[in-house]
Amino acid sequence: MDFDFDFFVIGAGSGGVRASRRAAAAGARVAVAEDSRLGGTCVNLGCIPKKLLSYAAHYGEDFVDAAGFGWTVGERRFDWPSLIANKDREISRLNGVYERLLQSSGVELLQGRARLTGPHEVEVGGRRFRARQVLVATGSTPLRPSMPGGELTLVSDDVFHLPRQPERVVIVGGGYIAVEFASIFHGLGSEVTLVHRRPRLLRGFDHEVADVLAEEMAKKGIDFRLSETIERVDQAARGLRVTLHNGDVLDADAVLCAVGRRPCSSGMGLEEIGAELAPGGAIVVDRFSRSNLDWLHAIGDVTDRINLTPVAIHEAMALVRTLFEAQPTPVDHEMVPSAVFGHPNLATVGCTEESARERFGDIRIFRSRFRPLRHTLSGREETMLVKLVVEASTDRVVGVHVLGPDAGELVQGFAVALRMGATKAQFDATIGIHPTAAEELVTLRDAVG
After folding, report:
1. Where are the domains of the chain?
2. Per-residue confidence at 449, pLDDT binned at 50, 70, 90?
3. 301-315 pLDDT, tens per residue?
4. Do 345 and 406 touch, CB atoms closer than 8 A?
5. Which of 250, 392, 401, 448 is the one with CA 20 to 30 A from 43?
6. 5-142+262-324 against 150-259: fold identical
7. In degrees rounded to 5, what are phi and psi of residue 346?
8. Which CATH architecture does the domain made up of 344-442 adopt?
9. Over the chain, what is the mean pLDDT?
10. Torsion over CA of 344, 349, 354 and 359, rounded to 10 degrees?
């Protein structure tokens, strides 16, 4: 059978680009099809622009804190259009970087929407190609609400192109996207109300850490309406009117719905060729990222495993080793670190207290909640929380959780230690760097649970 390509990748996000480049470096003839901007969600509508907005939002607090350190800061004014324009310029630069990376790797880039039309067959822009192996790396997209007035609301994709900053924002949802945008808008000066149907934020995260995060965000002035839902959204004389199921009415200039994402798997011929899909639309794959069709593979959010950019990249590298480097490599989803860039930041790796009790039974908890040194002069009441989860029978540290400034930077290093099976005794034997918040994690001596 003749093939135009050894490897055809649908989707040029972080995972698809990494798989394409690595396969080409291994000697494969590779094509990648993309119907939007290069870089996928992370570069264009996710991690990168959201982190840039998060940085911007921190300056409001920094200007206030500076007074405690002897600085006099003059008149302050924030300009939303300038931030968005600067963000757009950086994203365009990254789009160009991705294009050059593909070109320099010898990957053929096809602009257009791809559709699977048969075994080993992909159509793009009316042209059909045959490929020995096909990879779907199309990511996910925000869920659009179906409630009355849902067409008046925004999803996360829309925020990055708003022409002006809304003064009053209602955010629906309690996951990391809702938390991050609540912190961003509040930090930039908007009045923020967060409505969530559950009694606790961040399902799947450590309960104690999630509760402390909500407490710290509430101290900053974010209004939480937990265990509550929105009945409808109506156009008002000025802005929008949001009616909750308890009868309360909220006035807003924007309503952002952050209630989840769905895999981008529809309309590309997957059902017609017999690919197995989960009820939510995710492509079902094994631990080698192979679908029920031996020539079709999928990685990243479209598989709805762990929906993080570095995980998609890891899955891409494992797949290329398996297909083109004679090194069958299953995907390893153990000890994946993650962060929520709220204000304050939250970062975690390993087990939550709840999952560790279920998995190991007997565990020990070490915790410290304290006021960071910086805030002894800034006057800010924000506190920090660090927490270790330890398997009692082996003394192995199975979970690290940090809530506070730059938590993601801190936890990344400890993720290496957990991957290596570090014990609490080894944490204790490690000398801390003083004065830092990180030293708390190697000076926790007494178990609290």
Report:
1. 5-142+262-324, 150-259, 344-442
2. confident
3. 999 999 999 999 999
4. yes
5. 401
6. yes
7. -130, 135
8. 2-Layer Sandwich (3.30)
9. 97
10. 180
Q: Provide CB contacts within 8 A for 143, sequence distance 6+.
A: 155, 257, 259, 260, 261, 262
The answer to whether 170 and 176 have CB atoms below 8 angstroms apart is: no
Distance CA 352, CA 402 (A): 12
Catalytic, 186? Answer no
- List the strands of the sheet with 254-257, edge to edge: 223-226, 191-196, 168-172, 254-257
DSSP structure string for 133-164: EEEE---EEEPPP-STTGGG-B-HHHHTT-SS
Catalytic pick from 120, 186, 196, 434?
Answer: 434
What's the pLDDT tens digit per position in 359-400? 999 999 999 999 999 999 999 999 999 999 999 999 999 999
Three-class secondary structure of residue 398 per DSSP: strand
Hey, what's the torsion of the CAs at 346, 349, 350, 356, to 10 degrees? -20
The Cα–Cα gap between 156 and 259 comes to 10
Q: Dig out the tokens for 391 from the structure.
A: 């398997």
Which listed CATH number (3.90.1280.10, 3.40.30.10, 3.50.50.60, 3.90.180.10) goes with 150-259?
3.50.50.60
Residue type at 202 in one-letter notation = L
| Lookup: tokens for 325 | 């480097």
| DSSP state letter for 431 | P
Tokens of 247: 């009868």
* Rg value, the chain, Cα: 24
Contacts of 94 (CB under 8 A, 6+ apart): 39, 43, 48
Residue 365: in which H helix or E strand, if any?
strand 363-370
Interatomic CA distance for residues 343 and 2, integer angstroms: 55
- Give dist(CA 248, CA 136) in Å, integer: 45
